[in-house]
Every structure is written in C-alpha cells, then in structure tokens.
Amino acid sequence: MKKIRVHTPFELTLPDYTKRHFAAGLQLVEDDIAEHWFVKRYSEPAEGESLAAGDGESVLIIERLQGELTELTVQVAEQQEQIQAAAEGLQERNTAIAEKDQQIAELTGQVAELTAKLEKNNGAKK
User: Fold this and answer.
1) Are strands 2-6 and 25-29 parallel, antiparallel or unpaired?
2) Coil, helix or strand for 3?
3) Which portions of this protein are annotated as coiled-coil regions (predicted)?
4) How far from the centroid of its chain's Cα atoms is residue 78's Cα?
5) 112/32 Cα distance (integer angstroms)
6) Is the CB of residue 24 less than 8 Å from the CB of residue 9?
7) d(CA 5, CA 57)
8) What is the mean pLDDT of each run of 10 residues along the chain (126 residues)?
9) Handedness of CA 20, 24, 27, 30 (dihedral sign)
10) N or C: which end of the chain has fewer CB within 10 A?
11) What are the angstrom distances between the C-alpha of 60 and each of 5, 48, 49, 66, 121?
12) Which pLDDT score, from 0 to 100, does residue 64 have?
C-alpha cells in the first residue's frame, strides 16, 4: 500500500471495468494503483506525510471501501431494475402465448367440426 495526495478528484476505470472514485486529499491505495499513469496525473506521492491526528490507515481503507460499497449498491439497484423489466417482458410474452394457445384450441375445434360435417355430407351424397 502506498500513500498518495490527490490534488484533483477523479475517477479511475480499472481493468475489470469497475470505476473507483478518488476524492481530493490523502489516500492509501494499492501499489499498482499508485503507479498507474492516470493516478499519477491527478496525484503525487505522499511517502513522508503522516495522516491527520486521529486518522490511520484503517480510516482511509474504510473510506475507500465505503465508496466502493456505494458504487456496488448502485450497480445492484440498476441490475434489479433490469431484472424487473425482464420479468415484466416475460409475463407479457407468456400472456400472449396463452392467448395464442387458446386461439389454436378454438380453431382446432372448428376444423374438427367442419371436417366431421364435410365427411357427413360426402357420405350422404353417395
């Protein structure tokens, strides 16, 4: 873990396409994040700086994790909306299928009746 001082807030898109927000101020980040060219553009190393009184590495980690939790909560809410929309679409499709099945059953019954009448009429003509 390395300390960096962020001078301009920014958001970094990680290789797995998740986004991580960096607020201005002292941050404790993973080594690979601290060495990222984009992070270096908006921050500077803070090796010699100590954390403010009462703060510690755990406070920075908690803040970072709370930010990640907020992002994940938003993602979960978006996915729940997508699931709900998909479920509604499936319900509409199932209703349409049931209506078509009913029409098919009615038409099959009509075909059977007409076939029986036709056979009866053809039998009477002989």
Assistant:
1) antiparallel
2) strand
3) 62-124
4) 5
5) 75
6) yes
7) 14
8) 88 89 86 91 80 59 83 94 95 96 97 93 74
9) positive
10) C
11) 12, 16, 14, 10, 91
12) 78
Contacts of 47 (CB under 8 A, 6+ apart): 2, 3
| Euclidean distance between CA atoms 17 and 24, whole angstroms | 22
Per-residue tokens: 68: 């990640």
Cβ contacts of 43 within 8 Å, gap of 6 or more: 4, 5, 6, 7, 22, 27
Can you tell me which residue has the tokens 């980690």?
A: 61
Residues 6 or more apart in contact with residue 39 via CB below 8 angstroms: 4, 12, 22, 29, 33
Residue type, position 50, single letter: S
Strands (E), the chain: 2-6, 10-13, 19-22, 25-29, 43-45
Instruction: Show the tokens assigned to 73.
Output: 């909560």
